[in-house]
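Hey, can you fold this one?
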Amino acid sequence: MSRAGGNMETLIKPLSRLIRKQAGGILIPTLVMLAVGALIIAPLMGLMATGLKAGQQIEIGAVDYYAADAGVENAIWLINRFDPEAETPDPRVPLLVGYDGAPYSMLVDGDTVNITIYKRNSTTYRVTSASAGSTIVTYVTYGRNFLDNAITSPSEVTIKPNVDVYGDIQTPILDNQGDHFGNLLDWDIAYWDAMVAMIPGFYYDQVSADPAYASSSYEFHGTVTFPNSRTSGSLNIDSKSDGTLNLTPNSVLYINGDLDFKGKNWKLNLNGATIFVNGALSSATDSPSQIKGPGCIIALNDIYFQPNSTTNDYIFMMSLNGTVHLQPTKGDFYGSVAGNTSVELWGKPVFHWQTPPALNFPDMSQFIKENALAKLLSWDIQ
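Sure. Predicted structure:
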């Protein structure tokens, strides 16, 4: 027993001497660590405070952004439900192009948002929505009014060699073998099918009560006005000598079938009227010898048209379900062309788009609003 106790004492004594030799040795590293900690802790705490403040600012910025975004959504809702023919139209949505609507405000989670709607053109608005810390400027559209294009087709457009086109073209496919001076626009006309479906009835309703021209041909001499506003079937129009066929100003000539133009030495004066062909339209070369606008020539099916020349008045030509093959043999063409299947421009003319005058054609801005919802064109955060 005493032997075991001796052994334990023998082990403890060297350990005690070792500990005494290390007395105070840990103090210096401890003091160094405390000093370094003192140097680091203050900036670290400041950095943490800055991070917390930055986080708060980001959160505030996000709240401001979402408040401004809510203002944009509210403006789009107002535009979509706006009725310009209401007894008292909402003053926040402008009626006239180039004007602001009445500025207004709304509260979003306690944040005041100020909103202004500006009418850029007949189908596009600019919305400015500003919260306390964020401003969003966006453009909203119903889809472009295709009367603002030189050529429009939901399928394709072909420009043959030696043909020049001045104005915008809107189509998914352009085969340009000539020269185009203008913008090529993406297809965004969501209202196209609805518009094509309503146009025949739009014109028939204007003439349905009138007596119909019963003959299948109309031959004239001199200067005359077509006697009826509609036909009972297809019609051939021909002049054996120099003559001018006038249409009643701003009226409708509704052809209940196909329409063929024959003869070379006569002129067609649209007088602001619309020829609607409930079938196909075709013409012999140089027939008529001249078309004077303004006015519209619209066919349900294909248009194959080879007039000699046109005046510099606006003419709108459209095939609702088919192709427009337009080939003036002399002179330029002024106006706009649209075709459902395709538009083909031939010959050596120059096609000029110009601002449309008043036409006997559906009110596109209102029709677009009734048949398409506004959508965003661009988005800018300031």
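Residues 50 and 56 are 10 Å apart (CA to CA). Let me know if you want another pass with a different chain boundary.
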